[in-house]
């Protein structure tokens, strides 16, 4: 409120009304975005009977952890599926960053025959719906005996992420002045040293953006995990949510479903809150040169 009052005080009278309307509109949109999250968390702490009787109600007089306890009996248990999701997301983030950073640096700061064509081909793969290539990907994993494997699923997710990640990193490195690289070369620094000690710290917002997108996409992805994994002990959280929502005899367990959604959302919310500053800077990296 102090910041709002300060902004209103320093602006001319003609701009105050527009600024106030902008703030009010932003608050309304924020409420619309936040309310589903609040509703899911509130319903996850309802007793089972209250959640089944009125799933749309926001709050209940009673508070219970029963829904979270029931998740332990869904298949192998929610903690097993959460562990699988963590391993897959972490592997996807690490491999995506390790590949996209040097690739983006190469496309940004080096010139070689066929560079533009190769970059266009990489970007063109973003236009291919991944659902249309699931069958050939499954056959490839089968040849390498990686079907029903968490590592095989990580490789699939990295494949999906690389075009966007290479594009983001190239833009991030384009924003770094060439004078820094030339000065480092005069001092005798190698290309690896320049990338590690000069370019990476400056392009860190871009790296954070790539890592966040890789995490969110691999954490929430459902279709590929459903197709490539057949062992129940290797399922991920999105597949667990489908099992919970199907219920027994087709009856949806609303309380357990909201508890599962809450468990799935918490890492995404925390990661975004921790990296939001880098995320915004990373999205605009290279936009203005």
TrEMBL record:
It is found in: Cell inner membrane; Cell membrane. The chain crosses the membrane at residues 20-42, 78-105, 117-144, 150-173, 194-215, 259-279. The keyword Magnesium does not apply. InterPro entries: MetI-like, MetI-like_sf. It is a multi-pass membrane protein. Residues 82-275 form the ABC transmembrane type-1 domain. GO terms for biological process: transmembrane transport. Keywords: Cell inner membrane, Cell membrane, Membrane, Transmembrane, Transmembrane helix, Transport. SUPFAM superfamilies: MetI-like (SSF161098). PROSITE patterns: ABC_TM1, PROKAR_LIPOPROTEIN. GO terms for cellular component: plasma membrane. The complex is composed of two ATP-binding proteins (UgpC), two transmembrane proteins (UgpA and UgpE) and a solute-binding protein (UgpB). Belongs to the binding-protein-dependent transport system permease family. Part of the ABC transporter complex UgpBAEC involved in sn-glycerol-3-phosphate (G3P) import. Probably responsible for the translocation of the substrate across the membrane. This is sn-glycerol-3-phosphate transport system permease protein UgpE.
